Amino acid sequence: MKKLLSSVLMLFIALSLNAQSRTLKKVMAIRMPGDLGRNGASLVYHPVWKKYVAAMAGNSTYPLVSFDLKGKPVSDTSFEAGFDVRGMWYNSKIKTIQANGYNDFGWTNFKFDSHGNPVSNELFLAGQNQPDPQSVGLFNDKLQRVYFLKDISIVEYNMNGDTVKTYQLYPKIVGDDNMGDGLPEEYNKTPIYTGIPKGEIGLLNNVYRQIELFNLATGKPTVTWKLPEDAPWNDNFNFAYANGIVWLFDKDLRTWYGYK
Questions:
Q1: pTM, entire model
Q2: For labelling alongside 202, which of 12, 137, 172, 228 has CA 20 to 30 A away?
Q3: How many C-beta atoms surround the C-beta of residue 180 within 10 A?
C-alpha cells in the first residue's frame, strides 16, 4: 500500500510539474534611461513600494532606477547606484533591496526614501563572498540564503558570506538521454531563482529559446518555459526573475522585456 501511495504521489508531482511547462508571452517592457552601460545587471520587485528597481552592470556610476507597475520611471534617472551591481534581490526580513557586486565589492543594502526612491547604499558584507568576480547572486528569501552558479553547480551562502552547501545541476541536452557534465555553451551563464517548488533554479537555453527549471535538491530539469522567437538572448547577465515574471534585456534597445 505504501509503495502504491508513493507511486501515486510521484505521478501527481510529475503531472503537476508538466502542467507548468508552457509558452511564455510578453507582458510588459521597462526601458533603462540614458546610455550608460551595456548589460542589464538585474531587475527586482519591491512589494512594499510596488515598484521595480533595475541596475546596469559594469560601473558604480551607472544608474539605479525605480519604475512603476507600467514600466514608467518614477525616480531620478540620473541617480548613480554607487555600487557595481551583479545580483540584486528584495529581502523581506529587513524590507529593502540588497545586491552583490563585482569581484570584491561585497554585498550592500540599498536605501530608499519615503516614496520608495533609491537614495544611497550601505555595505554590510565586504570582500568577494561569491565563487567568481562576475557571479550574480540569487536570493531565497524564506531561508535567507544567497545562491551563485559555479561551473555546473549552485553554491549556497548564508548572510554572513559563509558557504553552506553545493548543489549539482544536470542540464539535459535536448535529444540526448544523457545528462551533461558541464554547463553547455548554449546556456546563459546567469541563472534565476523562482522559488517554485521542485523548479527553483532557472537556466536560459539560447539555442532552444527556452527557460529550463531545475529541482534544486536533485539538480534535474523539471519544467520548460518556451520563449517567443523574438525574445532577446545573451551569453551572460541580462536575465532576471521578479514578481512572477521572467525578464530578458535587449542591449540594443536598453529594454527589459517581461514574459509570463
A1: 0.90
A2: 12
A3: 14
